[in-house]
């Protein structure tokens, strides 16, 4: 990679790292695993930086890499065999709605990975059905189905009233 490309890559990743960690955390629910997902994703981004820079929407391109990295790890199952600590670290969130956020994150972790990815992209990143379909390389119908099933799973765990308070549609 040329020095100017490497500089642009470094600037981009440095600026977007908090957002990338957030999406990875929302997908997996574990800070350490989110760091691993982001590390793998930005490594892939580095390898394909020229192609990525040519994308119409670089942020969407990178977000797709993060989601696919998460889904690939779910398929291979390496995460279920690897445990570094026995206890979850203290939540680092702050704000008036921490308890609601923790309840939602816990429920979201119990939703199947593909449904979780669709829900995170649709409702937390406010992406359209078509954008999510493009990011996950599936049909719009599949996104709608996964959304419906994912919301049903959350409703089952949280109850309709709680989910409505959280903004589920």
Plain-language structure description:
By secondary structure, this protein is an all-alpha fold. It folds into 2 domains: 1-83, Rna Polymerase Sigma Factor, Chain: A (Orthogonal Bundle), CATH 1.10.1740; 96-169, Arc Repressor Mutant, subunit A (Orthogonal Bundle), CATH 1.10.10.10. Helices cover 76% and strands 0% of the residues. It contains 10 helices and no strands. The chain has helices spanning 3-28, 31-47, 49-53, 58-76, 78-81, 98-109, 113-124, 129-136, 140-158, 160-166. Helix 1 packs across helix 4, helix 2 (31-47) packs across helix 4 and helix 7 (113-124) packs across helix 9. The longest helix has 26 residues, at 3-28. The radius of gyration is 17 Å and the shape is globular. The protein starts with a helix and ends with a helix. The model is unreliable at 91-96 (pLDDT under 50). It comes from Kibdelosporangium phytohabitans. GO terms for molecular function: DNA binding; sigma factor activity. Belongs to the sigma-70 factor family. ECF subfamily. This is RNA polymerase subunit sigma-24. Residues 13-76 form the RNA polymerase sigma-70 region domain.
């Amino acid at each position: 990679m040329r020095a100017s490309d490497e500089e642009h890559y470094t600037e981009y990743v440095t600026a977007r790292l908090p957002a990338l960690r957030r999406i990875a955390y929302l997908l997996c629910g574990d800070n350490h695993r989110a760091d691993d997902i982001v590390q793998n994703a930005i490594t892939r981004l580095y390898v394909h930086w020229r192609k990525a820079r040519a994308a119409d929407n670089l942020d969407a391109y990178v977000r797709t890499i993060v989601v696919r990295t998460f889904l690939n790890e779910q398929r291979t199952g390496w995460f279920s065999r690897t445990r570094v600590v026995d206890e979850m670290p203290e939540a680092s969130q702050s704000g008036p709605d921490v308890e609601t956020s923790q309840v939602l994150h816990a429920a979201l972790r119990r939703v199947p990975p593909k449904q979780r990815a669709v829900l995170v992209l649709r409702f937390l990143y406010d992406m359209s059905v078509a954008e999510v379909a493009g990011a996950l390389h599936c049909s719009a119908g599949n996104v709608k189905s996964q959304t419906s099933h994912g919301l049903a799973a959350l409703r089952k765990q949280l109850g309709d009233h709680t989910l409505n308070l959280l903004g589920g549609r």
